[in-house]
């Protein structure tokens, strides 16, 4: 997709703040610090529209970004950030859960995992739950630039095995640093919003 315009719309804390123009939404989920905001920036070729941070747990709301007048990226709060209090984590969990369960506009959820490491318990739980509730998923294994190419397939297998990956889902190797996987991911997104 050619991105002519990308703009931040709102940091939503509840359904009353979600846009009501019925445009398709592409949601991004994954552990804190996995690279969700960086992936959005890379897809739209903007350095810092989606705020990134080396401090995990920064994105704590549903952040909507409008791309042209075609779709929204919805940057979800990262999960599994241990330093956040348990109560707060549970509130986030419920908030994301309600959005994922009820929001009809979601056409695809990008589940980001770090290609360098085996998926965490939270990653495995999230994938399983998403499959259970039937949200369309594309798994994006990111930070690929941080390991040598010769190890990618081995790491991908670890990701697949740990998630009990459904072969009918897409799995894309990505790097926000180099832009690897960008065109392939855009294709998956375009296919998802045309349905
Ligand atoms: P939260 O908003 O806290 O949930 O984090 P996030 O998932 O949005 O992560 P973010 O995009 O802020 O990235 C976290 C850190 O990882 C930043 O320092 C990024 O520069 C770095 N990073 C993200 N993606 C990549 C990548 O593909 N390669 C490399 N080398 N670094 C990356
Ligand atoms: Mg973020």
Explain briefly what this protein structure is.
GO terms for molecular function: GTP binding; metal ion binding. The protein has helices at residues 36-44, 86-102, 121-133, 152-163, 182-193, and strands at 6-12, 25-30, 62-67, 71-75, 106-114, 137-142, 170-173.
Descriptors:
single chain; 195 residues; alpha/beta; Rossmann fold; seven-stranded mixed beta sheet; globular; binds guanosine-5'-triphosphate; binds magnesium ion
Mind telling me the CATH class? Alpha Beta
**Termini separation:** 16 Å
Domain count: the total is 1
Backbone structural class: alpha/beta
Order of helices and strands: EEHEEHEHEHEH
General description of the model:
- With 195 residues, the protein is α/β, with parallel strands linked by helices.
- 32% of the residues lie in helices and 22% in strands.
- It contains five helices and seven strands.
- The longest helix has 17 residues, at 86-102.
- Bound molecules: guanosine-5'-triphosphate and magnesium ion.
């Amino acid at each position: 997709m050619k991105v002519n315009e990308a703009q931040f719309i709102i940091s939503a804390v509840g359904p009353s703040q979600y846009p009501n123009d019925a445009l398709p939404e592409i949601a991004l989920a994954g552990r804190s610090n996995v690279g969700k905001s960086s992936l959005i920036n890379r897809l739209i070729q903007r350095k810092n529209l989606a705020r990134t941070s080396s401090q995990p747990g920064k994105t704590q709301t549903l952040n909507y970004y409008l791309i042209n007048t075609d779709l929204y990226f919805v940057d979800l709060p990262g999960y599994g950030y241990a330093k956040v209090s348990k109560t707060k984590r549970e509130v986030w969990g419920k908030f994301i859960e309600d959005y994922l369960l009820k929001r009809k506009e979601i056409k695809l959820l990008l589940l980001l995992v770090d290609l360098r490491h085996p998926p965490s318990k939270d990653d495995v739980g999230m994938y399983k739950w998403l499959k259970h509730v039937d949200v369309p998923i594309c798994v994006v294994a990111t930070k690929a630039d941080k390991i040598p190419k010769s190890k990618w397939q081995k790491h991908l297998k670890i990701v697949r095995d740990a998630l009990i990956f459904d072969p009918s889902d897409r799995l894309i190797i990505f790097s926000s640093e180099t832009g690897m996987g960008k065109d392939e991911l855009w294709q998956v997104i375009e296919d998802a919003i045309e349905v």
